Amino acid sequence: MDDAAPVMRAIEAEAAPFRLMRPAATPTAAMMAASRLDRHAIRRSEDAHVDELVAGAPGCGHALIAAEYARAFIDVNREPWELDPGMFADELPAYARARTARVAAGLGAIARIVCEGQEIYARKLTFTEAESRVRAVHHPYHAALAALIAETQGRHGRAILIDWHSMPAAAARDRMGEACDMVLGDRFGSACAAQISRHIERALAAMGYRVCRNAPYAGGYTTEHYGRPGRGVHAVQIEINRALYFDETQLCLTEGVGRLKANLGRLFADLAATDWAVL
């Protein structure tokens, strides 16, 4: 008997004689494959470096949650199913056929355009693609945020949520066309107690910033959804003019970032030292 025969039969029974391992396809890679724009163009819509600006908050006693995915991929400051039917090849479920002003402007949960009005996608998306983004990013983010609010309220009897964003310098103007550095959005007073908005506005104004209220941004889904002053949960959105710290053409930080971070650190310390028992 040929001793090599069993060995040969074993080899013949094996699968391929090697394994090919490729990098896992990331959700954002799939998005870029469908995009007509490059990364540079899409990044002009992001809340640039806001996580770095507020990174000092935990050191002052505040909890911090930061979204890790770009707004163009999935905007967690939108209702999760706030989708534009015109962006999709298949028919959307009834619950996802949003008719909001944000969708009409191309800025739903999955944006159709970047801030300059350029169309992002070279093809129609499928609802499966949208659903995977919502379930992978939007749902876990808000589950964690809701749990954090409940934990804070359980410990202190109340919770104050500050939702930080940045805005293009070109959009940072009030109703009269005057430039502003910060915009406080409290849904026209419905999302938080008036003393909170006043306190933040005065603190920022004392540092030399021009602060506007509810124009051009009154607060998005996060502020509207969580802000329930009557139930002890207060929410306010703060938009920072990118011109204070960021070059929107080169997509890089400027020398102004140091002063801004220092002043925000002062605001965090002030908020932590304030007695909010009156709320």
Mean pLDDT: 90
How many distinct helices? 9
The largest sheet, given as strand count, sense and whether it forms a barrel, is: 4 strands, mixed
The order of strands across the largest sheet is 1-4-2-3
Rough outline: globular
Which stretches are poorly predicted, pLDDT < 50 over at least 5 residues? 6-11
Estimate the helix proportion, in percent: 25-40%
CATH architecture heading: 3-Layer(aba) Sandwich
Q: What is the domain total for the residues?
A: 1
- Would you list the SSEs in sequence order as H and E? HHHHHHEEHEHEEEH
Care to count the β-strands?
A: 6
CATH superfamily: Zn-dependent exopeptidases
The gyration radius over C-alpha positions equals 24 Å
The secondary structure category is: alpha/beta
Query: Which fold name is given in CATH as the topology?
Result: Aminopeptidase
Distance between the termini: 91 Å
SSE blueprint and pairings:
Elements: H1 4-13, H2 27-34, H3 39-43, H4 50-53, H5 101-104, H6 127-156, E1 159-167, E2 182-185, H7 194-206, E3 211-213, H8 221-226, E4 233-241, E5 246-247, E6 252-253, H9 256-273
Parallel strand pairs: 1-4, 2-3
Antiparallel strand pairs: 2-4, 5-6
Report on this model:
With 279 residues, the chain is α/β, with parallel strands linked by helices. It has a single domain, classed as Zn-dependent exopeptidases (Aminopeptidase, 3-Layer(aba) Sandwich). It is 35% helix and 10% strand. It is built from nine helices and six strands. The protein has helices spanning 4-13, 27-34, 39-43, 50-53, 101-104, 127-156, 194-206, 221-226, 256-273, and strands at residues 159-167, 182-185, 211-213, 233-241, 246-247, 252-253. The strands form two sheets. Strands 1-4-2-3 form a four-stranded mixed beta sheet. Helix 7 links the parallel strand 2 (182-185) and strand 3 (211-213). The longest helix has 30 residues, at 127-156. Mean pLDDT is 90; it is low at 6-11.
